[in-house]
Amino acid sequence: MTDTIDKAARALSAGLMLFGIVVLGLVETFTGKPFAPAPITNEAGEVTAMPLISPEIRTGFVLAGLVVLGLYAAYRFVAPLPEDRGVSHETMAD
Amino acid sequence: MSYQTSNPLVGETEFALEGPWATYWIAFLRVVTGWWFFHAGVTKIIENGFAFTYGPSYMKGMTGTALGGIPVWMGNNLAWLIEPGVPLFETLIGLALIAGAFTRLAAFGGVIFMVLFWVGNAGFGHGVVNSDLMGLFLFMTVIVLAAGRYYGLDALLEQTALVKQNPKLRYLLG
């Protein structure tokens, strides 16, 4: 059960955040200008092109991923991992 | 676990690098950092191909920095490399980090870029610790933690006979 919740929290949070950042970013990038979620304006300040995907949607997915991690943290606050579980010794990268 | 009797500030230290949450987060940071550079590079290619003329002029303007005359010299003499190199290498660095292949080599390239951005942009109005420096440290973190080994292709590349026969290649992978 604990493993399932941990894996679900990791998969869901990473999935939401990477969807908002990378997947929707790919869609935004390869469907033409603007390549970023911000409108393009001319020198007069008039908007000449709007992003395909609203930044509210993309940031919303990222925030949702962070909320999942927050909920997991709250869950672990009331249901901590056993002392000897989930911690292993340092392995130096070489 | 490390325990240093000589340093009272370092007690028993446990860092679950191979723990699932640590690897999850290291891989996530690597992919997002890769996307950051991939997006910067590929949009330059879409817009202007491999003729990023702003690159050399940006470097020519890097006067009075800690890098001395190097960037200005590069801007004056290496335009042939910088113009195609910026979009190309940003894209390749991004792809490598996303895939986790040749991660340390790619992240070293990212460090070079971020050093030039950090010093060149000189956005120090709120101190030297700014978003450019944080980006530079993200690439350093990818290198130090060998982030390509976690959910990345380097985990497979490092198992090949070539790498096992030449273990120093792990300094470019990982």
TrEMBL record, chain A:
The chain crosses the membrane at residues 12-31, 57-75. Keywords: Membrane, Transmembrane, Transmembrane helix. This is Cox cluster protein. It comes from Halorubrum ezzemoulense DSM 17463.
TrEMBL record, chain B:
It is a multi-pass membrane protein. One of its GO terms (cellular component) is plasma membrane. Keywords: Cell membrane, Membrane, Transmembrane, Transmembrane helix. It comes from the Archaea. Its main location: membrane. Pfam families: DoxX. It is found in: Cell membrane. InterPro entries: DoxX (IPR032808), DoxX-like_oxidoreductase (IPR051907). This is DoxX family protein.
